[in-house]
Amino acid sequence: MRIHAAIRASKRSPLLQVVKSAAATIAAWLLAGWVVPGQLPVFAAIAALLVVQPSVNQSLSKALERSIGVIVGVVIAVALGLLLGSPSWIVLLAIVVAMLVAWAFRATPGTGNQVAISAMLVLALGSTPDYAIARIFETLIGVVIGIVVNALIVPPVLVAPARRDLGLLGAELAASLDRLADSLPEPQTPAKLQELMLEARLLRPMKDAAEASIAAGEESLTLNPRRSTHRDELREMRALLERLSPIVTQTIGMTRAYFDHYDDSIGQEPAVTAIAEQLRRAGHDVRLAVQIADVSPEPETLTSAIPALTAPLVIRPPSSTHWILIGSLMEDLRRIRGELVEEE
Fold first, then answer.
1. pLDDT digit string (tens) for 199-241?
2. pLDDT (0 to 100) of residue 5
């Protein structure tokens, strides 16, 4: 394992996220110190710091995880303290018991760790019932402040990354269709065929990236005060991705079939020229769909608003040596047309 990769992220968190976390932590420390005097409000500060997440929905999940973990940990610590007193080894016992309780209830790793940490801190700093109740109340203060700060200070809406990744997918999908169209009528070297196949395979991780970005965008709108402004945008992006995903599969399949069944005489088939033209039209219609959805990575490059796939392709039977490849390409073209053309 590379140490550098283990301790450094691929990109920085937004500075606003750091500011929000700092503001929530300071506010929780000051308010909890005033409401629950006598102890440093460590529990409140930690709760606020952990609860401020990239989205309001994630903040609520983390708040629930933190609150349940603290309450269960405190109850375990108080119960052990009342039963066994305060020998030093009881701290280790509390940690083990807390971990076993979390395991028995199938708690998430975050909740399980929080149960053990809370039990340990309560026994180390004071195991009386009054102290335990104060720490629970203090944690709830930190949780509430973390949620409020994250909800009020510019809640993040992750629409832009979804638009970017979907636009890149559409552009590359159209380019892949064009590359296959250019390759079909011409003789190809083994190196060119390998390059064509590798470029087609890149579509799959790009589709996965677009899917992840749209899912993150949808998650960022959950419980977000600004969700009504962007909900329709993400709904359109999701619909476009659902149209493009099968085309990605068909494009990779067509390229694979061409790669597997290629020979130098394939370009002499009369059907190949017609299929190549249909592929270019499919590429045009993919660009048009991306343009209509307003996710094009190059908005200054306009595509004709008239769909190019206006009629199914009808061809003469191919020669016996190429019928498998021609048939495979035609079937995939039929499926692509079904995704791009709205049948009356």
1. 999 999 999 999 998 888 887 777 666 666 777 888 888 988 9
2. 53
What is the DSSP secondary-structure string of 242-297?
Answer: HHHHHHHHHHHHHHHHHHHH--TTGGGSHHHHHHHHHHHHHHHHHHHHHHHTT--S
pTM of the model: 0.67
Q: Which residue intervals of 85-158 are DSSP H helices?
A: 90-104, 109-125, 129-152
Q: What SS3 class is residue 298? A: coil
- 229 contact partners, CB below 8 Å, separation of at least 6: 157
One-letter amino acid for residue 233 of the chain: E
Number of neighbouring beta carbons within 10 Å of residue 167: 22
Handedness of CA 104, 107, 113, 115 (dihedral sign): negative
User: Is residue 343 pLDDT above 50, yes or no?
Assistant: no
- Taking each helix axis as running N to C, give the angle between helix 90-104 and helix 56-84, from 0 to 180 degrees, rounded to the nearest 10: 130
Contact 138, 44 (CB under 8 A): yes
**12: DSSP letter:** P
CB distance 145 to 220 below 8 Å: no
Copy the structure tokens of residue 2.
Answer: 């590379």
pLDDT per position as a tens digit, 312-325: 555 555 555 666 77
Residue with tokens 């209509």: 292
